[in-house]
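From the pipeline queue, job 12 of 40. The input is one protein chain; the requested action is below.

Action: predict structure.
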Amino acid sequence: MGNVPQFFIGVDLHKTIIQICILNGRGEIVKERRYRATDLVDGLKVIGMLMQYKAHGRIAVEAIGVNRWFVNSLLEHEFDVVVCDPTKLNLKMLGRKTDRRDALEIARRLMLGDIDRNATTFYPSDDEYGKRKVIRTRHKLMQTRQGVINQIRSLLNAYKITGFGDSLCTEKSIKRLWNLEWPTSEMKAVIHALVSVMINLGESIDLLKKKQNDMAHLDIRVENLVKNVPGVGPVSASVLVYELGDVTRFKNSRSVAAYAGLVPRVSQSADKAHHGRLTKRGNRELRHILGQWAIRLLSWDERVILWAKPRLARSHKNKVRVALARRLLIGVYKMLRTGEAFCMERCLGM
């Protein structure tokens, strides 16, 4: 905003509770209040209360799953809003953690500029959020279906029932599972229930996969990845594009690798530094799809196999896979940010 902020507003938001703390430019508490918002009408009353601070105030709110209605309403009313990463705020380290202290600390760090420097996070639009939810929900349903399949296979193994192939989701396998004879009626009911769940999950997964493919065909960025990057199909490309979002928000290639959780933990003191395992604090969907992409390339791409051969001789295959995944991510990041062509040789440093 053009005006210098005079009020700094920290919001600790929960499903039904909104804790507000407002500081002036000297760090003095102007207003502290706890609101109960059981529905949208109550929530919008809180927005109405904040309207008097719109012209000369900034608002900081944590990036949590229940905040979209709140942030969207603030943006619609043209508030100056900052969405911050709760993990970077580290509010639990303060000792006593209460809603009141959290709202005060968020407002204080906003006033000091700490949030702007270290804790801001990307807030996707509703369109971007919806596309991400398609990707993440499909992946979650696939994991759930795999859990159901594992339960079915466990029962088959318990009774040494063989003859099923690699997939239990085929029409032939489902028909056989449904008609199997079991020692008790209870066992048969369990199998029928599990098979029914597996079928329903499969239909939902196919529906979301079709939607994901439709999204891919309508986005030129996804189409470019599919056409120009080896080993990437519409599903993988859509995950890369929509989970990265606006790539201009990343300062450099290291920050995009950190976003995906593909950087090691670092513990440094004086002249000693220890680099440990991956942080895995980044985007799970991005890390998963990069790992799958790396596995595919390691199995058939001659350039990748040549690059990996000396590394596999001295490191575990999982370390090599992670190193490849990071290089691939940086290559895609450069492509999306600058528009330059993806070059596998340059990614591999060959």
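Job complete. The chain has three domains: 7-119, 126-218, 233-348.
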